[in-house]
Amino acid sequence: MIDIKLLREYPEKLRSAIARKKFTVDIDYILTLDGIRRAKITESEQARSAQKTASQSMAKFNKGSPEFLEKQLELKEVSVKAKKLEAEAKDADLKFHDAFLEIPNLPDPSVPIGNSESDNEVISSWGSIDVFPHAKPHYEIPWFESRVDFSRGVKVAGAGFPFYIGEMAQLVRALVNYFLESAYQNGYEEILPPILVNADSARATGQLPDKEGQMYFDSSEGFYLVPTAEVPVTNFFRNEIFSYKEMPIYRCAYTPCFRREAGSWGADVRGLNRLHQFDKVELVKWTQAETSMDELEKLKDNVENLLQSLELPYRVLRMCSGDIGFPHAKQYDIEVFSAGQKRWLEVSSCSNFTDFQARRAGIRYRDKSGKIHTAHTLNGSGLAIPRVLASILENNLQSDGRVKIPSVLQKWISKEYIGDITE
RNA sequence: GGAGAGAUGGCAGAGUGGUCGAUUGCGGUGGUCUUGAAAACCAUUGAGCCGAAAGGUUCCGGGGGUUCGAAUCCCUCUCUCUCCGCCA
To answer: Which of A77, A80, A101, A282 has its CA 20 to 30 A from that of A297?
Structure first.
C-alpha cells in the first residue's frame, strides 16, 4: 500500500511510476473513489455528531416523562439517518480501499527502466564460468537419482517433493546450518517461525490477493503453507510500533517453502531446479526510512559473501522496472552458475519494499521527537538450498564422478567428497 | 473432544445502559532536587480516519444485533486460562 498523499498530490508521478512497472491501474477512477469516500465520511460524521449531542440531552429527562417520549421519537429519526449515512460511508471507504490496494509500490529512481527480464542489468559477477569437459547436469550424475529420490517422492506425496537420502540429506542440513550461522555472524537473530499462516499475514506481505493460486491452502482451518519465511517473519511485528532505538532489526529464519508453481511446470524443471517444497534461509530487516537503501546494499553483500565462501560463480542483476514485483521498490537477483546445465540459477532475491509492506502490515516506529513513521521492510534469500545444491554438484563434480564439498561446510559434513562412484 | 471462566490502553487492573477514550498503579518521556545517580516530587504519556486549522469521528478480542444512547445487554466467531479425556 502506497502513501495516500502520493495519490492525492502527485497523481502524474504515480501514473508514470506505475507505467514503468508495467502495471495498469486507473488512477482517475481511484481518485474519484477517494473524493466520494471523503465526502461520505464528512457527511456521516456530521450526522453522528448531531445525534450524539441530542442523545446526551436525553439523560436529563426522567424515563417515561412526556418530554422524554417526545424527544425519543424525534431522535429515532436522527438515528436512522445517521446509520444510513454511516453505512454509505463504510461502503465508499471499502470500495476505495479495494481499488487503492491494487496500486503497486513505486520503483526506486535507481531502478533501470525496462520491460522484461531481458532488460535487467548485470552489475557484477564473481568466479570463473569456464566449463570443464566432464561437466554434466546434476540430474545426470549416475548416483544422483539414488540420493535424491523423486520417484518415491511421487509415490508418497507428488511431483516436486523429493526425498533426500544419506549424504544429500546431510548436505542439505549442512547448508541450512552454515547459512544460519553466517547470518548470526552478520547480526541476524535466528527465529523458527510457524510455517502455516493465516490470511491476514499473507495479505500484509502482499501474497494475497496477487499470488493466491501459488500457495497451498488448508480450507478446513484457513491456513496457507508459507511460500517463503518472509511471510511469518515479516508479520512478527504486524500492528506494532517500535522505537527508532531498536532499529534496524535483523532476523533470519530457516523454513521449508511450499509453492504450487501453477502454470510454470514445463521446461527447466528437471532435478532440483524447481520444486514444490524446498528449504531456504531467509534474511529480514526492519529499518528506518532513511537507511533502507543502504541496508539493501549490505543485505546483498551478505548474500554475495555466502556464494564466495562456497566458491560458486555468480552474478548480480539489478532488476528492471518491468521485472520487479508488485510490492518491490528495488530488487537484486543473484544467480549462481551451474556448470553442467550451463545456466544461471536464481538462488536469491534481495529486495527493499520501502514502506509498502509495512503500511499494509501496520509496522511503524517512533523517531527521536516521538513522531510515528511507517517502517521499511527488506528481505533476501540467504540462500535457497536446492539450486545451491545443484550448483555445488555441477561445479564441484570431479572427473571420477565424486563431488567435492566446499570447505566451509565441513564443520557439519566431515567429508571432503561425496558420491558413491560404484553405482 | 467435554465442562467452566475470561478477553479493557506498553503491562497490571477498575468500570455492568447516559459527557467513558475510559479510575488507578506500574512502566515511558520531560522537569525540579543532586557533583552524578537513585529516591522523592511535579508535569506529561494510545492509535486510525476526516479536516488547512479549530475541531470532529471511530476503536474496550473480531463480526452482527437491540436501544434515542453500548466497554456495559443479546447473538456469533476467534483466542486464552482452569479441570477432565486423548496425545508427540
So the answer is: A101
Protein-proximal nucleotides of chain B (any atom < 7 Å from a CB): 18-19, 47-51, 56-58, 67-69
Structurally, chain A folds into a number of domains equal to 2
Nearest nucleotide from residue A77 CA, by C1' atom: B68
Q: Which helix (H) or strand (E) holds A19?
A: helix A11-20
> Which nucleotide is closest to A41, CA to C1'?
B50
Under 8 Å between Cβ of A348 and A317: no
The CATH number for A42's domain is 1.10.287.40
Q: Is A73 in the same domain as A216?
A: no
What's the Å distance between residue A216 CA and nucleotide B76 C1'?
29
A89 and A127 inside one domain: no
| Same domain, yes or no: A12 and A61 | yes
Closest residue, CA to C1' of B51: A42
* Rounded CA–C1' distance between A140 and B49, in angstroms: 61
- Domain assignment present for A284: yes
Q: Is residue A109 part of a domain?
A: no
Helix (H) or strand (E) segment spanning residue A250: strand A249-258
Same domain, A191 and A315: yes
Residues with CB under 7 A from strand B: A 4, 38, 41-42, 45-46, 48-49, 51-56, 58-59, 63, 72, 75-76, 78-79, 83, 241, 364, 372
- Residue A133 is given by DSSP the state T
Question: A343 and A369 in one domain?
Answer: yes
The residue range of the domain holding A16 is 4-100
Residue A182 lies in a domain: yes
Strands A249-258 and A189-191, sheet pairing: parallel
What interface predicted TM-score (ipTM) does this complex get? 0.89
Residues A81 and A140 in one domain: no
Q: Read off the C-alpha cell for A213.
A: 493460486
Scanning every strand, the nucleotide with its C1' closest to A56's CA turns out to be B18
What is the helix, strand, coil percentage profile of chain A, to 5? 45, 20, 35
> Is-contact A388 A366, C-beta < 8 A?
no
User: In tens digits, what is the pLDDT along chain A, a chain of 423 residues?
Assistant: 999 999 999 999 999 999 999 999 999 999 999 999 999 999 999 999 999 988 888 877 777 788 888 888 889 999 999 999 999 999 999 999 999 999 999 999 999 999 999 999 999 999 999 888 999 999 999 999 999 999 999 999 999 999 999 999 999 999 999 999 999 999 999 999 999 999 889 988 988 877 888 999 988 888 999 999 999 999 999 999 988 888 999 999 999 999 998 776 666 778 999 999 999 999 999 999 999 999 999 999 999 999 999 999 999 999 999 999 999 999 999 999 999 999 999 999 999 999 999 999 999 998 888 889 999 999 999 999 999 999 999 999 999 999 999 999 999 998 999 987 776
